[in-house]
Amino acid sequence: MSATPIIRRMIPDDLDQVLEIQGQLQFQSWKREHFISEINEAFFGVPLVAQFDIIVGYAVLKIAADEAELCSIAVCSKYQGQGIARQLLDIASERLVEHQVSKIFLEVRKGNLRAQKLYLDYGFIENGVRRRYYPDGEDAVVMVKDLGCLERC
């Protein structure tokens, strides 16, 4: 599919589809209540969805002072490899700069090389490792991206 999805703020009516994507990708890390909390957070939450006729991806970022954390991002299998995650990151980055955020941090599974490549290609750099970070004992790679360029460019 070559069309560009609409990227917009997540609303409660999106949650059935968002949770379905999360379940399809077999990582049940967020419950409905977590998403509701981020949707209701007017300033410190940046919950986004990518939508064609249906929701095909989402991202949730949380702002703390002049930094943000990418808490969760996913694109359903059928739509992966089409640049949707990058588009979600683009819109999120623009919104973060509007809130004077200078850096985005994230943790990614050490074994998730595909996601690490996306983040590296997007300008994140490795910043450390959190040992046994995930419930199954897998390490997390900590990554950071400086958003200063977005302000100046």
Account of the protein in words:
The protein is α+β, with helices and mostly antiparallel strands and about 150 residues long. The chain has helices at about 15-25, 30-40, 85-100, 115-120, 150; strands at about 5-10, 45-50, 55-65, 65-75, 105-110, 125-130, 140-145. The longest helix has 15 residues, at about 85-100. β2 (about 45-50) and β3 (about 55-65) form a beta hairpin. Helix content is about 30%, strand content about 35%. It has one domain (about 5-150): 3-Layer(aba) Sandwich (Aminopeptidase), CATH 3.40.630. It starts with 5 loop residues before the first strand and ends with a helix. The chain is built from 5 helices and 7 strands.
Observed structural traits:
5 helices; Aminopeptidase; single chain; alpha+beta; 153 residues; 31% helix; seven-stranded mixed sheet
Q: Can you lay out the helices and strands and say which pair or pack?
A:
Elements: E1 6-9, H1 15-24, H2 32-40, E2 45-51, E3 55-64, E4 67-75, H3 84-98, E5 103-109, H4 113-121, E6 125-130, E7 140-146, H5 148-152
Parallel strand pairs: 4-5
Antiparallel strand pairs: 1-2, 2-3, 3-4, 5-7, 6-7
